[in-house]
User: What shape does this take?
Amino acid sequence: MYKILSAEFIAPNVKKLVIEAPKIARKRQAGQFVIIRTSDNGERVPLTIADSNLDEGSITIIVQGIGKTTKELNAHEQGDYILDVVGPLGKPSHIEKFGVAVSIGGGVGTAIAYPTAVALKRAGNYTISIIGGRSKEYVILEDEMKKVCDEVFVTTDDGSYGYHGFVTQKLKELIDAKRQIDFVLAIGPIPMMRAVAEVTRKPKIKTVVSLNPIMVDGTGMCGGCRATVDNKTVFVCVDGPEFDAHKVDFETLERRNRTYKSDEETALNNYMCRSEEAMLKAANQK
Amino acid sequence: MSKLSNKERMKIPRQNMPEQDSLTRRNNFGEVNLGFTEELAKMEALRCIQCPKPTCVEGCPVGVKIRDFISLVAEGDYLGAAAKIKEDNMLPAVCGRVCPQEEQCEIKCIVGKKNEPVAIGRLERFVADYERDLVGIRTPQLKPKTGKKVAIIGSGPAGLSCAGDLIQMGHDVTVFEALHELGGVLIYGIPEFRLPKDIVKAEVESLKKLGVDFQTNAVIGFTDTVDELMANGYDSVFIAVGAGLPYFLKIEGENLNGVYSANEFLTRVNLMKAYLFPEYDTPVFHVKDKNVAVFGGGNTAMDAVRTSKRLGAKNAYIIYRRSDVEMPARKEEIHHAKEEGIEFLFLSNPVEFIGDKDGWLKGVKLQKMELGEPDASGRRRPIPVAGSEYIIDIDMAVIAIGNGSNPIIQKTTPDLQYNKWGNIVVNEQTMQTSKKGVFAGGDIVTGGATVILAMGAGRKAAAAINEYLKSSN
Ligand SMILES: Cc1cc2nc3c(=O)[nH]c(=O)nc-3n(C[C@H](O)[C@H](O)[C@H](O)COP(=O)(O)OP(=O)(O)OC[C@H]3O[C@@H](n4cnc5c(N)ncnc54)[C@H](O)[C@@H]3O)c2cc1C
Ligand code: FES
Assistant: This one.
């Protein structure tokens, strides 16, 4: 059992959970993830480690409540326990001194891009970050990014804050303005990562994305997480999660991620009904 | 029992083990075999002619004293029989169910030369179940504590049996397991209908009672490396991480939706209990009234195809590139599969998976094969027949063509010696690796093999580790 040391919403439906896991905190490097299971009936879901704190022996994960398990996780409060947390899994980000490094985060992708941005800065890069959200309240970790990056651009789809437009548009502006860019890391929804890959393909800027396939064990045992990269099959959990964006077959990834779409809806609906019932019951008892 | 002459013994027919009717069982995940009753067990035990030189024992990879335990069964001393088996085999309830007896002990049975061999596996199972039901698993006396600590990586049969021996020898034992449940393939691979999970859990519980410390969610290589374990106070390490890297066919369309490795399909259904979705969160492809093809001819393939039938598949095929005689699965599993309505397509090799416009599997193109000269494995090599391709409609495919070795330990412990398939190289007498204090056994050394061989390796390693710890005082 892993204790939750703190839990707070940092955007609508997006919760930051600090979990006591001293071993993982000590070992983890930027780009790695954990697999979490919340109950005996639960599924195993991968979540990137956003941060760690060696003094309190904790790791931070940032969870967007989309499906049943993530919503259930986000119902957890400080002092609650999580049944299983295993990690750190996956290969750490490949960090070197590229020169000018741009980290791009879309939505909660920012939480995943953040630790790598920190590592890129430490390695001596001039770091720029572009972080986006649907609207102002969906932009996360702006202050944290500002602390580590030389420049931070915030974009919103609706223009309610920062630059009005997508992260890719901002990136394209920087490229068009002939800013030197030696490395791009892009993490977020698949369409966004794919769009970034298209923007950097022609100018031949080395670009890395972090893939999010469905996983089971996370140790290379099942092959459920396989993706197509450079026309070859890879196991994302052990060969990745980061890959050369210009070689990833995003279509296959997106399609495989839809495998259990209707089941995910069933599970979510059941969960929401049960939560509602529980709330009604609690209200009636009062 | 000396009252019966050998001639009379030979006249007793091999006793059938009661089982669930095939039409009923293919709709449930309950155990297929129901086990001998006392009467059946006694009767079967009387068939043993108590050879002065029992050849059956030679056929057993760990040398269980088969004749002696069977004689105890015939006398009705079932607990004595259980104790006799446990002198050599720590997991009789498991092995009685999953060992390939027909090619180990039973093939060597003298009775079997003329009649059917004595049902050694069924008797082993009966005895182990009898003991568990009556008294629980009995826990042996422990030697005084030695103060030495051993880390075991992996909780499959190799790891569990090694842990059981070492704790009895007085050492402190910690088992590190990557998954959230203990038991290795016994838990995540072999289905409930062939090996009820309660049996594996009981074995684990008895080790816990003896004081074995189990740490789940610990992927050695990531959470700690082998070197870190050695540096952090463990005097010796036993690596028993199994095979665990699924092979794919490497053909077109393999990443379509609906194509699984056997490991993934079975893990979803067994470990994560997808057959109880949505009560359990993990889903699996809905095969109800759909067509399923499983590629391969081993136990894993039989488990996968029979699982798909239980999930409601309309047509469930085994597609195997050689003929039925070359199939490596236990005979009983093949027999049960056929009874359950599994269809076998022999001498057929997949060349391409075909998908619909949305990327869901719709069919597979197969090529006919014919058998040529025997290959290195002694089995006749399948050769493709030109122009023989044909397509069958399938909605889900499971690839069960074996496992390579998982590279996590290799990548993080480079100074261990490996062979070209990534198996750890050991001294076969002691299971000692090229690294001081580090031993290895089970599928990670042999490649995918059997439960009994893994268990035997675990015990061999425990004896050698004990010697090593004594000498390193
Ligand atoms: C579906 C299926 C059916 C089978 N049927 C039969 C049968 O009928 N009869 C028979 O005799 N054999 C059968 N086998 C083969 C048999 O199960 C194996 O040979 C045996 O389990 C090997 O035991 P092991 O202890 O070496 O490894 P495993 O049972 O594979 O256990 C290894 C354990 O180590 C864990 N692990 C891996 N890496 C790490 C790490 N880095 N850190 C920590 N833990 C780790 C794994 O999660 C796993 O729990 C079958 C196999 C399968 C897959
Ligand atoms: S999640 Fe099973 S191999 Fe990657």
